[in-house]
Amino acid sequence: MAWSRSRRVSLPLHQQISEQLRSEIEAGTYQPGDRLPSEAQLMAQFTVSRITIRRAIANLVQQGLVQSHHGKGVFVTTHDRAIYSLSSPFVWFNEDMVRQGLTPRIQTLLFQAVPPPESVRQTLALPPEVTQVYLQKKFLMVNQVAAALDITYLVPDLGATYAAELKDKMTFPLLEQQGISVDRIDALLSCRQADSETAADLGLPLGSPILVYHHTAYTGDRPILYGETLSSGDRLAYAVTLKK
Fold first, then answer.
1. In terms of C-beta density within 10 A (0-12 exposed, 13-18 middle, 19 or more buried), how is residue 192 classed?
2. 3-state secondary structure of 68
3. Portions of the chain given CATH number 3.40.1410.10
4. Measuring CA to CA, which residue among 28, 27, 53 is closest to residue 42?
5. Taking Cα atoms as reference points, which of 184, 126, 128, 185 lies closest to residue 158?
6. What is the reported pLDDT for 9?
7. Cβ atoms of 164 and 134 closer than 8 Å
8. In the 3-class helix/strand/coil scheme, how is 133-200 assigned residue by residue?
């Protein structure tokens, strides 16, 4: 197959290659269970170094499109989309994934106290004397694949108290286990194009459409958390049941 760089010249070389391989997987050139060409074959096909091919394959592994088996090769995976139900009473993300027979976990990328952006200050109704909130950036993993990137801002008293636990555990189940009731969530779904940082985090081409789940959680009437969960629609979708 011809290798053309003209459409992707703005991307690093390894991303150009992984994007082409991703396109071929999505087009059915490689079916689930198929073995990709060997490193040597890909090096010859794209006229690049071994490290470039390994970085390209790592991009595909991060996207959940392939799995690497030592000594056997790289194989296309069956890519199932996770569906999270936005229901009332609440079903938390981890519970919903387990109910579907999937294995959820989080992978924290960043957890630290930061000055709140003005939009977050207003959403959380922070008084002027509050100068910091806790920012957590984490992957929501499903069956070892990053289904979404979750970015949340938590009020400082809760962030400071539960910092250690929040790095390894889902936020809302942890808070409820500590007797902090999440009584209401205001949610909004929108769509935007992936900027360079989000594209790199999720292993997507720059400008890919992503779903954004905006959510503000309340204890009583007090807002305690604002977050955005970003995902590609083929990895994580949302379901809502409407009753009359």
1. exposed
2. strand
3. 82-239
4. 53
5. 126
6. 56
7. no
8. EEEEEEEEEECCEEEEEEEEEECHHHHHHCHHHHCCCCHHHHHHHCCCCCCEEEEEEEEEECCHHHHH
Look up the CATH number of domain 82-239.
3.40.1410.10
For the whole model, what pTM was predicted?
0.73
Question: Is CATH 3.40.50.2000 correct for 6-76?
Answer: no
Sheet with 209-219, side-by-side order of all strands: 104-114, 133-142, 145-154, 222-231, 209-219, 184-193
Q: Looking at residue 6, what is its pLDDT? A: 47
Could you report the average pLDDT of every consecutive run of 10 residues in the chain (244 residues)? 53 89 88 92 95 92 80 81 83 90 93 97 96 97 89 97 95 95 95 90 83 96 97 86 77
pLDDT at 159: 96
Q: Which two tokens stand for residue 172?
A: 């809302």
> What 3-state DSSP class applies to 211?
strand
- List, by residue range, all CATH 1.10.10.10 domains of the chain: 6-76
Query: At which residue do the structure tokens 């394959």 appear?
Result: 57
pLDDT of residue 223: 98
